[in-house]
Amino acid sequence: MFTKILIANRGEIALRVIRACRELGIRTVAVYSEADRAALHVRFADEDVCIGPGPAAASYLDAKRIIAAAEVTNAGAIHPGYGFLAENAEFAEICESCGIDFIGPKPDMIRRMGDKGVAKQVMKSAGIPVIPGSDGVVGTLDEARSIAFEIGYPVLIKAVAGGGGRGMRWCNDESELKSAFMIARSEADVAFNNPDVYIEKVILDPHHVEIQLLGDSFGNIIHLAERDCTIQRRHQKLVEECPSPIVTPELRSEMGKTAIVGASTIRYLGAGTMEFLVDRDHNFYFMEMNTRIQVEHPITEEATDIDLVKEQIRVAAGEKLRYRQEDVILNWHSIECRINAEDTENDFRPTPGEITSFHVPGGHGVRVDTAAYARYVIPPFYDSMIAKLIVRAPSRLEAIEKIKFALEEFIVEGVPTTIDYHKKILNHPDFVSGNFDTSFIQRMTEGRDRETPETTASTDDKKPGR
Question: pTM above 0.85?
Answer without folding.
Answer: yes
